[in-house]
């Protein structure tokens, strides 16, 4: 199985800050990576697919990069509504696996 | 508008069974693969199972293999998860999700809570 390791597990940031979250796969997954945002009590929401493609309706301050084993989600200017938990997921092979999550908290 | 609505969750004793349903609308259900994903209280997301559009390809997480069965009825626009031999560690919110571009999960239901406890 492919293990997905996210870092950091949590980050404290202020509105307007640039935030970067990293996801590392235990083996190469090409660009088969997605990023999701989840707020408490809500279902996850797709932000990025195929490592760097922005899902329709998602603000352009979100961006994704990487291929192979190392991936990054960047929020260019953190907004109040962005405080949430973020997950990466590999879609290269079964079983699909998620990263452990990164909680973005208010500083 | 794409909608996925799960139902069938509840309280069940260890060793018991439960069948979850996911009603889909707003898209051509028969054209999409579907997944189940779960989230234990206070924990992260765990992929559970996947079924292709025509049910030809089915996959399970090792943690549920042999106990859970995924199925679909394209005529009824519905996805199912039959859960047998339930354990306390199966306690979670269960989400159904559509597989979209790049094999991502582009639409999710609101989730249904399954609690396994005596």
Automatic annotation (TrEMBL), chain A:
SUPFAM superfamilies: Immunoglobulin. GO terms for biological process: adaptive immune response. Keywords: Adaptive immunity, Cell membrane, Immunity, Immunoglobulin, Immunoglobulin domain, Membrane, Secreted. Its main location: membrane. The keyword Transcription does not apply. Residues 2-99 form the Ig-like domain. GO terms for cellular component: extracellular region; immunoglobulin complex; plasma membrane. It holds the Pfam family V-set. PROSITE patterns: IG_LIKE. It is found in: Cell membrane; Secreted. SMART domains: IG (SM00409), IGv (SM00406). PANTHER family: IMMUNOGLOBULIN LIGHT CHAIN. This is IGL c2713_light_IGKV1-12_IGKJ4. It comes from Homo sapiens (Human).
């Amino acid at each position: 199985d492919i293990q997905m390791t996210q870092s950091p597990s949590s980050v404290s940031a202020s509105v307007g800050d640039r935030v970067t979250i990293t996801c590392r796969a235990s083996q190469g997954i090409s660009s088969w990576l997605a990023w999701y945002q989840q707020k408490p009590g809500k279902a996850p929401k797709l932000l990025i697919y195929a490592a760097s493609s922005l899902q329709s309706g998602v603000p352009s301050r979100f961006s994704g990069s990487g291929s192979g084993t190392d991936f990054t989600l960047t929020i260019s200017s953190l907004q109040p509504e962005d405080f949430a938990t973020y997950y990466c997921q590999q879609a290269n092979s079964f079983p699909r696996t998620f990263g452990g999550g990164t909680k973005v908290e208010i500083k | 508008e794409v909608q996925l609505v799960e139902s069938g969750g509840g309280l069940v004793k260890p060793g018991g069974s439960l069948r979850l349903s996911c009603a889909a609308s707003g898209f051509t259900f028969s054209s999409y693969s579907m997944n189940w994903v779960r989230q234990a209280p206070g924990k992260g997301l765990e992929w559970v199972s996947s079924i292709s559009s025509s049910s030809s390809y089915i996959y399970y997480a090792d943690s549920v293999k042999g106990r859970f069965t995924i199925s679909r009825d394209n005529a009824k626009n519905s996805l199912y998860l039959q859960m047998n031999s339930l354990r306390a560690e199966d306690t979670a919110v269960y989400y159904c999700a559509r597989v979209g571009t790049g094999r991502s999960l582009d639409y999710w239901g609101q989730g249904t809570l399954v609690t396994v406890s005596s």
